[in-house]
Write a structure and sequence with these properties.
two-stranded parallel sheet, 41% helix, 19% strand, 276 residues, alpha/beta, globular
Length: 276
């Protein structure tokens, strides 16, 4: 198995030229596109998309996934505009040559039981997956705080219930830690059958503070070893959040991003996992 390193390059800088320079310095040949010029990928104009693609082509960098915000809206919000946004993101994914689009499963009202919204979330995710299937894409659902799919059991239930090859899982250890979950112990076995992608960040259980991989309580070492033993050969996408983290993204800066790269590479070397 050989894994491919990628990352949320907007954690380096809003300027895509600076993003690509840091990736080149780290010999990383892929990025996960969430934003550039402080514009979210879902809001790119045709001109911005063309300009970004030209920069990628010049740098020899490819897109591992679209780090979209799809599904990061309240579960009670109108679905039509989100389906339209899904179609725009799908077109962007095709233009940039990636089949993977990260998505979320809707914010649940504070203090309410997620189970009350299970049927509604399944219906909404099925509608998103139908669009993706029609475009030959795969939606990689990310476990995120305060959405329906914030715990391993709800993530697995959601994917099994939608029952579409166009809805799979990505796995974020830090997010699980911040939800009181032991990522490997409680989550890996449930989600490995659905896993197509890996977001890489870690966190401290006591405070929720995000750390480089292996420096928190996210059981990243155990997860990587199990992925190695299962033959996983997909993308590992760095999302360091080392300078700031918010509901719709995070930032690290070039130096902290590089620190996160070094931490992940150290773990991969220790575990005998080849990467490129």
């Amino acid at each position: 198995m050989t894994v491919t390193l990628s990352g949320f390059a907007d954690e380096i800088s809003p300027d895509p030229r600076e993003q690509l320079a840091t990736l080149a310095a780290e010999s990383i040949t892929h990025l996960e596109l969430r934003s550039a010029w402080s514009v979210n990928v879902a809001d790119f104009t045709a001109a911005q998309l063309a300009a970004f693609r030209a920069l990628l082509d010049d740098a020899g960098v490819r897109v591992s996934a679209i780090g979209s915000p799809i599904g990061k809206i309240p579960v009670g919000a109108p679905l039509g505009p989100e389906l339209d946004r899904m179609r725009r993101v799908a077109a962007t994914a095709r233009e940039l040559g990636t089949p993977i689009v990260r998505v979320f499963s809707f914010f649940i009202p504070s203090g309410e039981a997620p189970g009350r919204y299970r049927a509604e979330v399944i219906d909404r995710m099925a509608a998103l997956a139908a669009i993706a299937a029609g475009e030959g894409l795969v939606l990689a659902h990310e476990n995120e705080k305060e959405i329906f799919g914030d715990t391993p059991s709800r993530c697995a239930d959601l994917i099994a219930s939608v029952n579409s090859p166009a809805l799979r899982a990505t796995f974020d250890a830090a997010n699980f830690v911040q939800c009181g979950v032991r990522p490997f112990t409680d989550g890996y076995g449930l989600l490995r059958p659905h896993l197509v992608y890996l977001q890489v960040k870690d966190a401290l259980a006591a405070t929720g503070e995000v750390t480089p991989a292996g420096e928190g309580d996210g059981q990243v070492r155990e997860t990587l070893a199990a992925l190695r033993d299962s033959g996983f050969a997909g993308f590992m996408s760095l999302e360091p959040h080392l300078a700031s983290a918010g509901r719709f993204g995070g930032f690290s800066g070039p130096e902290a991003f590089s620190r996160a790269v070094r931490a992940l590479r150290s773990l991969l070397s220790e575990l005998g996992i080849p990467w490129h």
